Amino acid sequence: NKFFYFPVIKEFGGFKYLAAAKEFFGALEAAPPVGLTDSLEDEFMLAIFRSTQKSPILIFKARSYENAFASMLKWEKNIVYDLAEILSIKGVESLKIVFYDKEIKNKDSRALKDGDGNIIFLYSFINREYLVITTSEEAMKEVFRRFTVSQYLN
């Protein structure tokens, strides 16, 4: 199992800097609710978890869990369309967008399945502080594991 992290760089006026979450969503032409972008810190992480498959992962730090979670629920009807390209989700046009509650490693998550019953998108919050978005349960479990280990080490 391997993690690969990618900085998201914005270039402006000859200068390069880490893109903020709002800039990242703008570059994707994604339209998350304003309540979500306002409740997220600027810094975020883009990673790939490679195990039995390659799973993209987005991790954002939330300023307000309550606002971020409520906004994620609002965004559910469009989030897969907005993030399909960066998360490499195929066939979104034919999906019936119905999220359901799923418990993963004793943490509440929201998941979406394709027509064959396979999870293709899920999100969860770690300690009401970090929003994690990915495409596989295996990747989500690994993120939870790594956050748990780092809490004990710090």
Protein described:
It is a single chain. It contains 4 helices and 9 strands. It is globular and about 45 Å long. Helices cover 34% and strands 38% of the residues. The strands form 2 sheets. Strands 1-4-5-9-8-7-6 form a 7-stranded antiparallel sheet. It has a two-stranded antiparallel sheet with strand order 2-3. By secondary structure, the chain is α+β, with helices and mostly antiparallel strands.
Brief overview, please?
The chain contains four helices and nine strands; from the N terminus they run βββααββαββββα.
List the helices and strands and how they pair.
Elements: E1 2-6, E2 9-12, E3 15-18, H1 21-27, H2 34-39, E4 40-50, E5 54-62, H3 65-87, E6 100-104, E7 107-113, E8 119-126, E9 130-134, H4 137-153
